[in-house]
Design a protein that fits this description.
It is built from 14 helices and 19 strands. The chain has 427 residues and is α/β, with parallel strands linked by helices. It has a domain of 188 residues: FAD/NAD(P)-binding domain, CATH 3.50.50. The strands form four sheets. An eight-stranded mixed beta sheet has the order 17-13-16-15-14-5-6-19. The chain binds flavin-adenine dinucleotide.
């Protein structure tokens, strides 16, 4: 079967590996002329790590990422609200890992080239549209001016799976009325800073009063280039800025936001310094797509961000694409008719992904910071237990994991996954 995959992002490359595991040899068409490790931090949830294990890439993932040990919530003054263990430290069978998006993509690309051959990925090929009939799909391409390999203007395939990201050309053709993303009104500032490791070396910090802005911080590379320092990823959510353009590589000036966390006092990290010392800073609007009512049209289907772009705040975007890849491959191999296979894939995946898109528009577990801001009127507190009792915070997290399809493995109250430093370790 001739299988065309559009887009060599994390989703498209994983699909190529999954199909190869089933004995098929798909071809991936990627618009950029050269794959480079772009982006900043991203999360492999325990279920994403399971997918990587099944692909035989666990060692590579572990070597390139940082184990996620604990997740800590603070108000804008740096006062601790709640803490929770992560991944295998919480009892899930697989670890949660923090990784640079570009490193993850290049790891998958290397595996595709090794397993399927270099010609399995055609670089510099931008899908410009397609037509399908009863026997196949004709896909039109335009060549990138910097392409060094031959780029076909037209390809005939039995099926096409579009994994061409949030600005998917295939999605725009299938759903012209729903091609414009939904803007939340929030701008994301994303940066990386080289600094001394903090806390357990595997902590994700959630800081701030949501009505003013939020900051998320986590390590993505340990002992960066042998320096003993950690490469730390940070994301600032700014509420009151005009919409920025949808370009993952749009650079920003950190001076615009660094002052936002001047009041935050943490004894293990200087937040202002971290922001100002950033190696690179990018701007991106917090956007997603409204959930779609149909992904599969005959011999063509959507996956990953092309099907269900969601706010990256939930840390599920890449992992959902990995799951799509597994399910598409399983259905294509077990169901004879491609159209039926794509329908079955969509039936299994669309309700879950759409639910997550909508859930990510809410606060998720970040709601604990909002509750504290509301109950304290945005002021410092003396005793967090009087503002947000531990049991209340813990039940919010328990419920969130259940909703996200990752029920906490350990619900025994004597061994709760959540904690406050006073109960667990010295802050
Ligand atoms: C450059 C870049 C940087 C990113 N940085 C971050 C980040 O820092 N943090 C984060 O949470 N998420 C980031 N993302 C998004 C994240 O990678 C996805 O949410 C997630 O991995 C799902 O992957 P995907 O394969 O569906 O989409 P993507 O990873 O977006 O991959 C889509 C691929 O399709 C290619 N493509 C697009 N249009 C066409 C076309 N017409 N024809 C052929 N190929 C096409 C793109 O070049 C890209 O390689 C980034 C995406 C990109 C493209």
């Amino acid at each position: 079967m001739e299988i065309a995959i559009i887009g060599a992002g994390i989703g498209g490359l994983t699909l190529a590996l999954r199909l190869h595991q089933k004995g098929l040899k798909p071809r991936v068409y990627e618009t950029t002329a050269e794959l480079r490790p772009l982006g900043v931090g991203i999360v492999s949830q325990p279920y994403g790590t399971r997918e990587m294990t099944e692909l035989g890439l666990l060692d590579e993932l572990n070597a390139a990422s940082v184990d996620s040990i604990e997740s800590l919530y603070y108000n804008q003054y740096g006062q601790e609200i709640y803490g929770e263990r992560c991944g295998s430290h919480m009892g899930y069978p697989h670890a949660q890992r923090f990784i640079h998006r570009g490193i993850w993509q290049m790891m998958l690309y290397k595996a595709v080239v090794e397993r399927l051959g270099k010609d399995a990925v055609v670089l510099g090929a931008r899908c410009a549209g397609f037509e399908q009939d009863d026997t196949g799909v004709t896909i039109r391409f335009t060549a990138h001016p910097a392409a060094t390999n031959p780029v076909p203007t037209e390809v005939r395939a039995d099926v096409m799976i579009a994994s061409d990201g949030i600005n998917s050309a295939v999605r725009a053709q299938l759903h012209p009325q729903k091609s414009k993303p939904h803007f939340s009104g929030i701008t994301l500032w994303r940066g990386v800073t080289l600094m001394k490791p903090f806390k357990t070396g595997g902590a994700i910090l959630h800081i701030g009063a949501p009505s003013q802005g939020s900051l998320i911080v986590y390590p993505i590379v340990d002992n960066y280039e042998g320096t003993g320092l950690t490469l730390v990823n940070w994301i600032v959510e700014q509420n009151d800025r005009a919409e920025s353009i949808e370009d993952w590589n749009q650079k920003g000036d950190v001076a615009e936001i660094a002052h936002m966390f001047d009041e935050c006092e943490l004894d293990f990290i200087n937040v202002g310094e971290m922001l100002r010392n950033s190696k690179e800073v990018y701007l991106f609007p917090l956007i997603d797509h409204d959930p779609l009512e149909q992904w599969s049209f005959g011999r063509v289907t959507l996956m990953g961000d092309a099907a269900h772009a969601m706010y990256p705040r939930g840390g599920n975007g890449a992992c959902q694409a990995l799951v799509d890849a597994r399910v598409v491959a399983e259905k294509l191999i077990t169901i004879e008719s491609p159209a039926e296979a794509f329908k079955a894939y969509e039936e299994e995946r669309r309700p879950i992904a759409n639910r997550l898109v909508l859930a990510n528009r809410g606060d998720g577990p970040e709601v604990v910071r909002r509750i504290v801001e509301e109950r304290t009127g945005g002021k410092r507190f003396d005793d967090i237990e009087k503002v947000l009792p531990f049991a209340e915070a813990d039940s919010i997290f328990k419920e969130y994991h259940r909703l996200a399809g990752m029920k906490r493995p350990n619900e025994n109250p004597n061994e709760a996954s959540g904690f406050r430093s006073v109960f667990f370790h010295n802050a």
